[in-house]
Every structure is written in C-alpha cells, then in structure tokens.
Amino acid sequence: MRPSPHRAPGLLLALLALLALATQAPAKAPAKSLALWPWPSSVKVSPKLLNIVVENFLIDHGPNSTAGPSCSLLQEAFRRYYNYIFGFHKRYHGPAEFQGGAQLQQLQVSITLKSECDSFPNVSSDESYSLLVKEPVAFLKANSVWGALRGLETFSQLVYQDSYGAFTIKESSITDSPRFAHRGILIDTSRHYLPVKTILKTLDAMAFNKFNVLHWHIVDDQSFPYQSTAFPELSNKGSYSLSHIYTPRDVHTVLEYARFRGIRVIPEFDTPGHAASWGKGQKGLLTPCYNPSQQIEKFGPINPILNTTYTFFNTFFKEISSVFPDQFIHLGGDEVDFECWSSNPNILNFMKKKGFGRNFIRLESFYIKNIFNIITSLKKHSIVWQEVFDDGIELQPDTVVEVWKGENYFEDLKQVTSSGFAAILAAPWYLDAISYGQDWRRYYMVEPLNFVGSKKEKQLVIGGEACLWGEYVDATNLIPRLWPRASAVGERLWSPATVTNLDDAYSRLVIHRCRMVSRGIAAQPVFTGHCSHEYEMKK
Amino acid sequence: MAGCRLWVSLLLAAALACLATAVWPWPQYIQTYHRRYTLYPNNFQFRYHAGSAAQAGCVVLDEAFRRYRNLLFGSGSWPRPNFSRKQQMLGKNVLVVSVITAECNEFPNLESVENYTLTINDDQCLLVSETVWGALRGLETFSQLVWKSAEGTFFINKTKIKDFPRFPHRGLLLDTSRHYLPLSSILDTLDVMAYNKFNVFHWHLVDDSSFPYESFTFPELTRKGSYNPVTHIYTAQDVKEVIEYARLRGIRVLAEFDTPGHTLSWGPGVPGLLTPCYSGTHPSGTFGPVNPSLNSTYDFMSTFFLEISSVFPDFYLHLGGDEVDFTCWRSNPNIQAFMKKKGFNDFKQLESFYIQTLLDIVSDYDKGYVVWQEVFDNKVKVRPDTIIQVWREEIPVDYMKEMEQITKAGFRALLSAPWYLNRVTYGPDWKDMYKVEPLAFHGTSEQKDLVIGGEACMWGEYVDSTNLVPRLWPRAGAIAERLWSSNLTNNMDFAFKRLSHFRCELLRRGVQAQPISVGYCEQEFEQT
User: What PANTHER family does this protein's entry cite (chain B) (predicted)?
Assistant: First the structure.
C-alpha cells in the first residue's frame, strides 16, 4: 500500500496513519480466520479445522445447565447467533453435502450458577465465560446468562466462511472476562431525536462489541422526548413534536431489547443545568432570569430555592426509578451556568438567608444534595458528571463520577479515585468530535489506568464510555459515525491491558467492520478496501 | 398562452408564505407573493404547451413529469376534494411546460443552456425554457416551491422566477476505486445531484486500489484488478444505466481514467504496462507509474481509450495526470536510457512526453479533456482547449493564485481545492465551503470567463456505501449553490435557514442527509 490520493498537504495525522499502514506486516491469513473483537483474555487455537454443515449444526442447552428452553433470553440468543453465523449467506451456498473430515455438530451452552435469565444485568454481573471448540461438540460455559451472551458472540466470530461458502472453525480454547465492568455508549436523544429503530440497531452493534451499558442522555436543553406518565406535559410541550417522543412502550422496548443482549440502560436526567426543555411543560421549575432588575422572558437552571422543585423531583424520580430497572441513575450536574441565578433577587435573598453569601457553588451543592437524598430514598445510586466532584459538592459514598473534561483527565481520575469514589472515563472518547482519517487509533491507545495511583485507586475506575453527542448527529449518520470507531473503545475496555498492538488491531478491525456490515450495521470503512458483501440501503 | 390553471386560495397566510421561498440553490431572480394557489394531488398534471418543441414521447420530460409528481405527492392516492362547482377548474390543475428546442434524445453537454422562467400567477402556471435541460432545472424549482399546510393541503405561492446557472460545470466526484460503490449508491447520488442542480458526475472509476470498470477490449483489467471480479465491478450494462440515468436528470458523466500515476490496479491485467521499479541493478518486484518508454504502452492506451471514447458519450474525458511519483522511473535503467536517447534531463519532460502522446491519442477520437493541475504545473504542452482542474490548496501556490495562473495562460479552469468533502471536521463545515468565491483572484474579466465551474470531491479512502450519503448531503449542497446562484447570494443566515429546510426536504424524499445543527424534521430518517 502506498500513500496515494488527492490529498491536501498538511494533513499530518492522516499521513502518519498512512505511513503506519505502509509499514504494516501482511497479517492477512491468520487474521482472516481469527478476527476476534474484542480480543479475549486467553486464546488457544489449534490448526485443526472442523467443518460445520449448516443443516447438521445446532446450538443447544447443555444437560446440566441451570438455564433451559424456558430461558427465552438464551433461546433468542441462539436463534440470533445462528442467523449471524449462517443466515445471511444461505443464498450463496448449494445443498449441504458433507465432504468428510472432522465436523462440529453442536455448540452446547451451560450456565453453571444462578442463570439470572429473567433478571436485568447490573454493574456486578458476571460476564466471564469459557469456550472449548473440539470435535464433535463445542462447549460454552458461563456462570450466568450474561457470560453466555458474550461467549456466543465470540463463538460466532470464530466461524469462518471460505469463498466457496463452506463454514469452518478451528479447534480452540478460550477463557475470557472483561477488564472493566462498565463499558458504555452514550447516545443523546435531545439535540436530535433518534427513532427507536436506530437505538435498537445501536444495541445490536453494542453486543457485537461486548459493550454492556447504554447511557441514554434522554433529555437536555433542546427537547424533552421522554414521555412521563406523572408529568405528560413535559413531553407534550417540551418535545420537538408529538411524533418525536418515547412513549412508555418505546422505553420498555428498548429496556427489554437491551436486557436480551446483556446491556444495562442507564437513563440520564441532567439537572440543574441543561434543563431548558423541562420548563415548557413544568411551570415554575426553571429559574426566571432578571435583566437587570426586571424579570425577562428567559429562564436559567432549575430553581433550587422552591419547595415545589423538590416535590416535583420526588415524584418524577420515583417514576424514573420504577421505569428504569438499573440500580444507577445519571443525574448530570455538568455545566451549570450561574449567571441567571445571580441575576435573580429571590435567589440572592435565599442565599443570604442560608448564609451562602454569593457562593453559587454552595447553592448548587444545596440543590444536588436534595436530589441525592431523593435518589437514595428510592434505593438507587447516582452517577454525576465530574463538575459535581470538581466543585467540592458533598457526594454520597456510592456516587460514581464520570470524567469528561479533556484537558487533564488522568489527573481528574486520580483526584476522584483518591477521594474514594468510583470513576467512569469518557474524556478521550468523545466520538462526536470527528476528524479526517483513522482516529480510532487514538481512542484505542488510551490506557485508562495510566495515572499514578494505588491499586485500590485503580480498582475504582469501573470503566468508560464512548460518547456520541447529538448536536450534529441523528438517525442519518449515527451508525457510520459510531461504528467501528467505538469498537476501539470496546476492545480497550474489555481486553487485557496488554492488547495494544495497532497493526494487529487494524487487521482484526477491518474484518470486524465487514462482519458488522454483513449483520446489517452500516459501519464505515477503516481504510481503503472492500467487504465481500457491501452495505446496500434497503428501500 | 394558457390561462390560470390553479385554484386561488382565499386564505392568505403570511407566516407560511416564507416556506415557499425555501429554494435551494437560490434562483438568480425570484419574486414571491402572499397570494397562494391550491394544488390537488389526484389530478395535478404536468402538460406540454401546444407550442413546445418537446411533446409527449420526449423521454427526458415524460420521465421527469412522473418523477416530480411522485416527489410532490407520493404515489398514493389522496382524499378527493369536494367537487361540485369546482370540478371544471380542477381539470386545469396543471403546470404547463414549454421548451424551444427539443433535445430529448441527446446528451447534455458543457454548452447546454439551462435557463428557465417559471411563472405562477392568476393567469398562468408556466415553465418556459430553451432546452429540456433547463426545463429539468425549472421542474426541480417548482417542486421546491410547493408546500403542504398543517391540514395537508398543497399550496404554491404566486411566484415569478427567471433563473440560470452562474457556472456551466457544476460537478460532483465519486471515487469507486478506493471503495466500490454499489450501483444503487451511484444512482441515488444522481437523484440528489439533480435536487441540487449539479450537472456533472465526475466518475473517478479506477485508481491504485482497484479497477472496477469492466473493459470489453481488456477484460483482464477487472479480472485481475478489481476487488472481486464478480461482485465488485461495473459491467457495460451498469455503465450504460448510469449514463442514461444521469442523462434523464440533465447530468453529464465525466469519466476519469487517471494515468500515468494512480494506476497500480491496471498492472495485473496488462503485463508490461507499469514501470518495474529497480532496487540496485535488479527489478524489486514492485511497480510504478505507467511505463512511458515503450511503444506497447501507447498501443494499449490507443485501444483502451478508443473503447472509453465510445462508451462515454460526453465530449470530455478526464485523463488525470496527478501525483506522478518519479522515484520508480528514476530507479529503472531502461527508463534512464530512454530519456538519454530522447535528450530529457528531467522527469517532468518524461511525464510531459507521456501525457502529450496520450492527449494526441484522445484528440484523434474527437474528445476534449480535463486534467488535474499538475499537468499545467509541470508545463506539459497541452492543447489550448484543455480544462485544468485545481485541487491543491497551498502547493505549489495558493489555489486562487493557481486559478489566476491557469487562466492567465489562457486555459479553462475548474475549482475543487476548497471542496474536498471527504475531509471532515466537527461542526458546520459547509459554511467554509459556501463562502468560497471561485472568482476571487486577480485577473481580467476574460480570465474570469475561463473559470467554467467547480467540483465537490468525495474521495473514497474512508468512504463507501455505509457513510457516503450523510457525508455528501447536505454539505455538497453548499457547493451546488455557490456554483449555481449569483455571487451576491452569500448571506449566511439566509443560507442556513434554507439549507436546514432543504435537508428536511431531502429526508422527506428519502435521502439520508445529515443534520447541520440541532433540531428536527417532521419526517426523520427511518432505519431499515
């Protein structure tokens, strides 16, 4: 490969990427048969090839499994993975004719502990699994269904179809478990509404990359698409239009679709800033801004001085905590603008009475503490953006802090964890910030624990999130913008810290992206090349 | 002339009237009024004027009428209005189209006249143009003037438009070599090009990475040079389909076969065509540009371009000529010997020799040609009617300086440098592309007349059918307006408003056009 195209000069990054490619060893043949993504913690592959004859192959429950045919989560997964492995290619091969030789006839899936078949996954769910592929039966063992789902994905990636349409798999043995428990994708349905279908597609792709958290930034300044049963006016007045909402049924669909893929859904209701759209359907909730002494038709953050505010949130979060089963609710807390608060005489009065002086951080702290108390009373845990921690606001011991500021995120991680709080890293993974060329390499090379800290501090980093904010993203471009760029983050959060070889990652990612394309995900190309089945828009 | 063909609405909705002015690209002259007329989907018609040179059977317009009827009203049926007294008026629910010269079976070309006038008033609903190509542009404008009220009634406001393009060459480049684009992606792009009044599809068919064009004289080219000789090729039938689909939309197909560089994929199918590179005294096994020292090279090119000249009807071919790397030529002793014999002392002369020979071949087939700017920069002697395409932003000189120099030398120029759509950055980058003024260089008015237009380029290193459409639209729309509309159409707020609206209209038409800001469209893109 050589740098070729009509390229404007000065694109250093792109050139570097191209140079990196030029020096790359042609790892094509081995990768083709073993393009696992994310790479498991232990892989042993023998050269012995087993044939798989579609009509003779079965995915089934092991005899001693704690889950059986009544576990619809697994039943659905079996069907799904059977289709991923064989379904899309059916039209390309003729009638099955076994040519002799070693054959794999079955994948037996056994759950060894409590199956958790009907539960929702949570932050301490066990996703480990082991996979033993040998003639004539392959064994997938996991402590719970969540590990089985990850193992099924890995199994599907082991099967290789040659150019004549025959399916083969190498005898192999894999043991695997995630490096981090929290591996998230943030989607933003306020800046642009995302149709439910787009969210479901995203969940599919997340499962292909072993992501396990959908961080649903569901509302923000621009629109309030969440349809609340307690406060229907919020979306009636605050959504872009009445067709741009998520009904309780939509939310339920997303939750169940995610559960079936071992994905948690953490909703974010960001306050007290980023809340302009709440004001339309809930009069009196936002702070009226003054200019300079007279009230103007402008509103700021949530009004923290009124009892009605907390009555509202009590009811609202009560609904949220029952609609969303996850133990965590993301409370936002980022980018609170004090200008409006400082213009409002009632706010200033209140602060005086409370002895806050003109310290608005204390006012913010007062507000957030009240919200924390509501969340605690509902037996839920909170996640907040880092400002809440940075501003010295008193957190609950179980509060998780999400680090998003790009300047010095290792220092921020150090601060958060040395204060004893759990942290999620998002800062280096803002995927909405696009640039020309292979930016996945940058995301891939981030080492989340690359800060000076004790073992205990590092253990407090529970994972990370790839964030796709929605200012310039909607259903038209979400999928190709997210995939396979987020896959780089997916591997970083799942695979051992030692998996850092960029050339190897490149050759696997190229194949992994074609695999996503063949499964109907419009994942964009990593670089020049082709997939055997290109993406075609269905009309 | 025809009488009034539209229903006059008694209601005047000033607020909604602004919707009627959300036209993209903005016409040269437009006047709109609050007065509005109702259109009835069930029996709305496009009809040829009795005096029109084109009549039923003119496939370009017959097909366009059907297309625009579908775009306007969909193919479903609509609730019938309450007839009674209105019935005879409904029969006149018609846009009358009149063209002066019929070119229904011809291909559009660089000189095609795309002017049209559109008159919607109490007496007339009339589209007049000199050619069918102008009528196509007018139909597009008409379709953008029609709007739907919240109750679902279709309206068009009283309007007078006189419109014509600022530049005759308004192109979009797609690269089908770095990634293969399925035929459907190309055809869909042609549709959206027509919505934006683009009129040239610059098809960068082949390059180093792959050779998807199936040649009937040299079938080995795709057999050995494509990504997959069965699935990743364009057959003769595919190419025909693209050309006809483009023609029906008034779009020229400018085929590019880039040589002598960017040709690695040609090598496997035509042994001996590429220069063997040497490492020391032995061939290294790698290959460089086309070998300019062999007669067999020119025999091949002669036969190959004879085929290309007959397959692609446009007068112009794009011959590439960019980024020729001299290191391989330099390493090869036979090349050095050849240069000595010819008395060349620098590789630019060798390049020049190759290109001049190629240009002579193509000229013999009665074709004109477009080349990338290096051919001019390297002082290759070319025919005075050569078109030079400017793509480099800063080297060897700033692109505006380059435009100045090319036109000063008397050549026609095409601008692409600021319009590389494959390059992405965060945010509304369409604004920078929109603000480019192609004639902002020092030069006489004769020089400026030599700028025939520009092209938006979507190179394919990181683009295939998964991300082509949202990366193209509506960003390419910014360039489309710059090339069609008056240079005075440059108010950013006005452009933003119309482009936001236009992108929602694209969504409505099923085009996966990405957002330019926060907000929403009534009809969002639905995942399949």
Answer: BETA-HEXOSAMINIDASE, BETA-HEXOSAMINIDASE SUBUNIT ALPHA
8 Å CB contact between A302 and A342? no
- Among residues 350-409 of chain B, which lie with CB inside 8 Å of chain A? 372, 391-395
Weakest-pLDDT range from A46-55, A214-223, B410-419: A46-55
Task: Write down the catalytic residue from B103, B323, B522, B526.
Answer: B323
Domain check: are A95 and A163 in the same one? yes
**Residues A448-475: tens digit of each pLDDT:** 999 999 999 999 999 999 999 999 999 9
What mean pLDDT do residues A308-324 have?
98
Cβ-based neighbours of A63, under 8 Å, separated by 6 or more: A110
Selected residue of B520, B521, B522, B525 to mutate for chain A interface (largest A Cβ count, 10 A): B520
Give the CA angle between residues B318, B324, B326 to the nearest 5°: 155
Query: Is B514's CB within 8 Å of A476's CB?
Result: yes
User: Could you tell me the domains of chain B?
Assistant: 21-78+88-163 (3.30.379.10), 169-492 (3.20.20.80)
Could you tell me how many CB contacts below 8 A there are between chain A and chain B? 172
Q: How far apart are CA A64 and CA A4, in angstroms?
A: 58
Residue A72 structural domain:
42-176
CA distance A124 to A180: 10
Q: How many structural domains compose chain A?
A: 2
Distance from the Cα of residue A282 to its chain's centroid: 31
Q: Is a pLDDT exceeding 70 seen at residue B17?
A: no
Nearest CA in chain A to B263: A4
Rounded to whole angstroms, the Cα distance separating A388 from A272 reads 11
Tokens of A465: 């999130």
Q: How far A97 CA lies from chain B's nearest CA (Å)?
A: 25
* Residue A9: inside a domain: no
Whether A129 is covered by a domain: the verdict is yes
| Residue B210 with chain A: CB contacts under 8 Å | 530
Taking contacts as CB-CB distances below 8 angstroms, the residues of chain A near B517 are: 471-472
Domain match, A448 and A378 both: yes
The verdict on B507 touching A (C-beta cutoff 8 Å) is: yes
| Domain CATH number, residue A153 | 3.30.379.10
**Same-domain status, A169 and A187:** no
Query: CB of B57 within 8 Å of any CB in chain A?
Result: no
Residues A425 and A326 in one domain: yes
